[in-house]
Every structure is written in structure tokens, then in C-alpha cells.
Amino acid sequence: MSYTKELTWKQLQKYDSVMGLNVSADYLGAYLAGQKRFNVPDWLLQKWEDDLRVKKLEDKQLADTVRNNNRGIAYEKEGNIKFAIKIYEKNLEIGYPATHSYNRLMIIYHKEKRYEDEIRVIKKAIEVFSSDARYSKDVIKWKERLNKLTNK
User: How far apart are the C-alpha atoms of 111 and 140, rounded to whole Å?
Assistant: First the structure.
């Protein structure tokens, strides 16, 4: 029973984006030194496969989110707020952590005096972004906004 799989350089390159810089550099160094085949432990290959699946899903979510944001912006410019809302809400369902749709929905719902929807979006934004320090200022702003709305 084998616990490793032999890969060519070309086969190994498939995993470059998920193997980490140090590991990638080690394999590259060996390849440049003339190594043609690489033994990779089965457990590591499985981890890379799993990581690749996650990365592909995240890449698709990002692409869909960007496309939807652009469509939402275009709908807003046309004055078609109803369709902009649908598109931005679709991004919340996709779940990719990007703030544009959340912020636009908060603004649109506030302008339309749809405060329950605004509160729902704010709470969702706080839930999604609280664990990422890059969004700490946004989260503080959203919490303040939520407090103002709930204390009306």
C-alpha cells in the first residue's frame, strides 16, 4: 500500500496556489536542480485537493459578487432601485465577504424608510465582518447605525 503519489512538475504546479510559499519554493528549487518527479504524501495531496475546491468556490463567489455589484450600480444609475435591491440581496446570499452590497442596501432601505430591512442588513453585515480585523471600523460604524435605528 502506497502512502505517497509520484507527480511530475506539471502535475505539481496545479497545486501551487494552495501549497504555501515555502513548500512551493522547495519544489521549485528541486525542479530547477533537475528533479523530474516528486513524491507527495497522500494526506498532503488530499489537503491540497480540498484547498483547491475551496479556492475555486471562493473565486467563483468573488466573480459573481463583482458582476452583481456592477449590475447593481448600473441599475441604480438607471434609477431602477427595485432591480438593484434584488441584485445586492443576491450578493448577501452568495456570502462572499465584500461590503459594497451591504452598504448600498443600508442606504437604499434607509432612503425608502424600510427600517426593518435596513436593520436586518446591518445585523448580517456585523455578523459577517466582525471576525475580520480589516473591517473593524465598518463594524463600529454599523453598530452605531444599528443603535440609532433601534433607539428611535
Answer: 21
